[in-house]
Amino acid sequence: MSDLYLDGKFSRNAFINGKEYLFFSGYDYLSIHENKDFLQLLNEGLRKYGWLYASARISNTKIDLFEKCEAYLSELTESEATVLYGSGFSSGQAITQLFESNLENSPFSHPAILKKKNTEKDVRKWQQTCAETIQSGTYPTFASDTVNNFYVEKYDFNFLQTLDQSANFILDDSHGFGITGVDGKGVSSYIQKAKNINYSYTYSLGKAFGIGAGAVSTTREIANQLHKQPSFAAVTPPPPAQLYAFLHANEIYLTQLEKLKANIQLMAQLFEGIEDIKLHPELPLALLPSSLNETDFLKENCIISSFAYPDPKGPKLNRLVINAAHTENDLEKITKLVKKYLS
User: Cα–Cα distance between 9 and 98 in angstroms, integer?
Assistant: First the structure.
């Protein structure tokens, strides 16, 4: 099937050549793009800062918005310091570049943090290898996603608490920050931290918060090293109007998160007892059998996520991606269609 070109933005629905479809793809978990209160905050930010800050963070002329946002993100992630970037990919690349000479990746690592591909398929076996390496006293650095959004998995890192040797751990929380943990604060709010492990969190602000930016929350020492990289010093910073809206939208985000949680729970109820569907109680995703055909859903005015990953020549991964704007009727319709095509 050829690619689908949307007329414009998407939320619970999308339009193609003027025709409306229910939309179960993309990443707009909290459905911020359609939220009127958020758009009002965005307009306030535009009036104050414009749509672009056409300067560098190291310039002698500054605005304090970026530092305020970094301080807020440090508070949310319980970190000493945070460094903003233009995307989650950029932030992941920046932090892993610091340690790439001594970095080991987890299986299925996202390209944002991937420096050395790991052929191990079992994450638990990889964690066991991590523990053995750390206990050897070599002070290694590991990088892993916290959520595998393609296979609908959320990883547990509490095994680190049992270790007494030191290590660096880089956790990419792009698909967790904003929706998992306490009030959506992500992995930093639920991981049982070990004192001897140095944690750095890299993440996108786009998946849940609807902001075109990414960040690394880490120690002050590592943040100072990141500030010296060209990827921070020689680039245009994230759009300030969006960061202004982000800083003032906490109540909006929490309200949307409750809606999303209700939708996740409803989807689980509607798919209850169907072994061919993979779900997770905290994730707005459903992994469908590869045998299903996206064209069948399109004929019923529904769009699902369907593309091959990580091998573009491999079998397609079929998923439903839900968001806070989907209605009960939306979810009932798509789950009925899935059941129909599975039978």
Answer: 36
